[in-house]
């Protein structure tokens, strides 16, 4: 039997890169999606190949349907199967109140974080579902503790997008449970990745550390381990679950 294959969206950096590397170490063949940073994606792929794994990179904006379709077709062509999808790609924006946000910002946030997640899940279901002739599989969506806390005064648009991801996770899990597909989510808290700098707050991790009951930030690898468990057969009776990895926050 050939190795199981996974697609990790936003897999070139941070949590996505950690999931790709750990997945490969666990024996998965990995498709690493990236939106623009080809060099970072190539580093992840090279790391995997150098340790005996199998991986390739695919450019694509998850918020564009044509890109998503092409991405999944590339996985079909390369691996011939899809067993796992990690919906990790997402964006944040500058710290702002709602009354300061433009419609362009709101549209971008929902297009990538919500519509992108739904489009990728749709394509995965079309390949994995037994009702489509598939052999089943697992989807893991990367949410955020912001979905619970609301992120007031920072980015409630981001929090709302992740709340939608949580709801999509639960609904889709129930929709396809009898078709061999498990759908779960990981809800990270303060994690030491580049996403904070991309939102204009490079010092956010240090500033927020004291609010975490464990008094430290998490690592991308800690989130990746949670995602890999949900993808694995060890989580065979878990679907519709949202696993919080937030240090108690």
Automatic annotation (TrEMBL):
One Pfam family cited in the UniProt record for this chain: adh_short_C2
Top-level taxon of the source organism: Bacteria
This protein's record includes keyword Transport: no
Swiss-Prot/TrEMBL keywords: Oxidoreductase
Domain Ketoreductase: 4-208
Signal peptide: none
Family label: Belongs to the short-chain dehydrogenases/reductases (SDR) family.
PANTHER family referenced in this protein's UniProt entry, alphabetically: OXIDOREDUCTASE, SHORT-CHAIN DEHYDROGENASE/REDUCTASE FAMILY (AFU_ORTHOLOGUE AFUA_5G02870), SHORT-CHAIN DEHYDROGENASE_REDUCTASE FAMILY PROTEIN
Protein name stated in the entry: SDR family oxidoreductase
UniProt organism field: Neoaquamicrobium sediminum
């Amino acid at each position: 039997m050939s190795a199981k294959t996974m697609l990790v969206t936003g897999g070139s950096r941070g949590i996505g890169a950690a999931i790709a590397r750990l997945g490969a170490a666990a024996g998965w063949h990995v498709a690493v999606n990236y939106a623009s940073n080809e060099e970072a994606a190539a580093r992840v792929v090279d790391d995997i190949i150098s340790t005996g794994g199998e991986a390739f990179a695919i450019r694509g904006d998850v918020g564009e349907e044509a890109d998503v379709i092409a991405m999944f077709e590339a996985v079909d062509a390369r691996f011939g199967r899809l067993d796992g999808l990690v919906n990790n790609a997402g964006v944040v924006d500058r710290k702002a109140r709602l009354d300061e946000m433009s419609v362009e910002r709101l549209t971008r946030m929902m297009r990538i974080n919500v519509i992108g997640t739904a489009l990728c899940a749709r394509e995965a279901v079309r390949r994995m579902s037994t009702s489509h002739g598939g052999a089943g599989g697992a989807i893991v969506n990367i949410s955020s503790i912001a979905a619970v806390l609301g992120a007031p005064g920072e980015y409630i648009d981001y929090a709302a997008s992740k709340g939608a991801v949580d709801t999509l996770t639960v609904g889709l899990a129930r929709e396809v449970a009898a078709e061999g597909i498990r759908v779960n989510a990981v809800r990270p808290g303060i994690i030491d990745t580049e996403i904070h700098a991309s939102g204009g707050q490079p010092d956010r991790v240090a500033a927020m550390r004291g609010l975490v009951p464990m008094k430290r930030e998490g690592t991308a690898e800690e989130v990746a381990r949670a995602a890999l468990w949900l993808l694995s057969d060890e989580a065979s009776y878990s679907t519709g679950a949202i696993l919080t990895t937030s240090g108690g926050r």
